[in-house]
Amino acid sequence: MSDLQISLILLGVVLILLVLLFNWWQDRRVRKQMLEQFPEREEDPLLGAAPTLSMARREPGLGSVAEPTIGAAEASGAAPLSENDDDPAEVDPATEVVIDISFAQPVPSEQLHAATHAIRKVGGKPVRMFAEKEGGGHRARLRPGENYVSMQLAVLLANRSGPLSEIEWSELWTIAEGLTDRFDGSMEGPEIKEIVERGQRLDAICAELDAMVGLALQLPGALSVSEVSRALEEAGFIRHGPQLAWMSELGIPRFTALFNGRLPGEVQSAGVDRIELVLDLPNSPADDQAFSRMASVGRHLAANLDAQLLDDQGRPVADGADQAIDQQLLERYQQLESSGFIAGEFRTARLFS
Q: Collapsing DSSP states into helix, strand and coil, what is residue 66?
């Protein structure tokens, strides 16, 4: 064997060692990143806590294993889910894209909770998680004492921040790779080109259906936040989270109030000289008097506060235009429904957020 052949063999061995060393370093780096994102703890403060019932609208997903599973049946007063019932929430294939992860061995709920409890969104897109119980059973929330053989990461394809981007998808893919590595599993998902195209199509549909209608009350002078809030509450507005809202009989806001363009709790100035009434059409229940109802409240407030009622172009609101605008908004509500989205429902709210 010549010196050249020996040198080439040695060079090949060195290259192989370098590749192995690089892969080892890459693996350690990914593991370290995942452990920083999802640290394992001997005792999770969420586990074992007394269950509490919250009736607020919330994003379904895998939560603490100690949390009760509250489905639509329970919220409506029907019989609660039994221990072996599937959870009603599931992937929405029209609005979400999924990464499937299968585990080599069943994973206890406590371990899976520790690995996933911090996953809520990637970029501006919310992420939901679902799991399949050993022996069968679909879960939208982990339950204590169960083991899981697979899970899904479902991310929204589009919302008001735009379509799902390659960066957002890559972030979710990295999270899935970390979970797969952590539990010695396997994963699969669609190609990035297909995802981007689906997100762009859904975003285009939503852009056609989206609508916000506003009125403004120009006050004669600045009033304190507390004075303005009191005037709105006396007129019938109700506090709904951080908002002051005019509520429907379904408990969903028909329209909300902003103070100088901000939520009441976000105002930094000493006084408020402008109140905006905002009807967020996809997030308010369908109403054949949507605009006239808001305009009537606006006129009442204008009289009480000696304010001028303006449209969203800054012009005084003319009498007699309410019914025409009502009809236009009703047509938009119908377009939304014919596209598969019911105004004011949770599924629609996820897209138009």
A: coil
What are residue 65's phi and psi, to 5 degrees? -70, -15
> 166-182 and 109-116 are packed helices; what angle lies between their axes, rounded to 10 degrees?
150
For residue range 265-316, what is the model confidence (pLDDT) as tens digits?
A: 998 888 999 999 999 999 999 999 999 999 999 999 999 999 999 998 899 9
Structure tokens, 260: 């100088």
φ, ψ for residue 16 (rounded to 5)?
Answer: -60, -45
CA 14/CA 308 separation, integer angstroms: 80
306, two tokens = 């000696």
Radius of gyration of the chain (CA): 27
List domains and CATH numbers for the chain: 85-206 (3.30.1400), 210-351 (3.30.1400.10)
Task: Write the pLDDT tens digit of every residue in 72-89.
Answer: 333 334 445 566 789 999
Amino acid residing at 18: L
